[in-house]
Amino acid sequence: LPSSSWSTFEKAGYYNWTISRSLRLVCLNSMLWYAGNKAPAPKGSVDDQLVWLREQLQEAHQLGQKVFISGHVAPGFYTHVLSPELGTSGLLRDEINEAYQDLIANFMDVVSGQFFGHQHANSFVVLLLDYTVYYLDYDKANMHPNETPKWEPLYTLTTQYGVPDVTTASMVDLSQRLNSSSELLDTYIWLTTAFNDSCDSFCRRVQLCSAMCSRAVPHSACITS
């Protein structure tokens, strides 16, 4: 890391890195905001990170830079909740989820990409260009432990779902078709789990609402509709 990044990294695990004159990487410690994180955070770090993020985006805007944001836990909601008893709470604390998305919306001309993990599923929330998903059949691989495991293509988004690209307009069109076509939603769920998990009516509703809604109020309304 450059020396200028160490102060925030040592304080609470987040930092920035100027990749070029036109591109900046902002690495968040989104575990500080994770709704399921019960460990005490460093004093002031939860709010400080959001203030720091705003400063990074403002500075990038002034310098004419684009920003890639990375983190572990994403904003939005879990896509795989298999029982109503488990609830449909967000990934981040509600107030952080709202504040973060408001901030990103204010700097939509600066933020070129957001990259998160955590869910262990290839459901769509943020999409860049076209992509192909690959999977590894563990049962098959374990039957031949001395052979190199083979990753196989599962699907390519544009050809699988019949969209021209992965722009916002195309994803809105796809989400509307998922909402109106039970068969297409079955295919989507089947592919997000690489042919594995069963999914009842509540599970299907969660999958759909989590793909369409990342804010608490519309997500709750979608689940209960």
UniProtKB/TrEMBL annotation:
Keywords: Glycoprotein, Hydrolase
Ranges of residues in domain Sphingomyelin phosphodiesterase C-terminal: 127-223
Alphabetical list of Pfam families matching this protein: ASMase_C
GO cellular component: extracellular space
Gene3D superfamilies: 3.60.21.10
Molecular functions per Gene Ontology: phosphoric diester hydrolase activity
Superkingdom of this protein's organism: Eukaryota
DNA-binding among keywords: no
Name of the molecule in the record: Sphingomyelin phosphodiesterase, putative
Species whose genome carries this gene: Ixodes scapularis
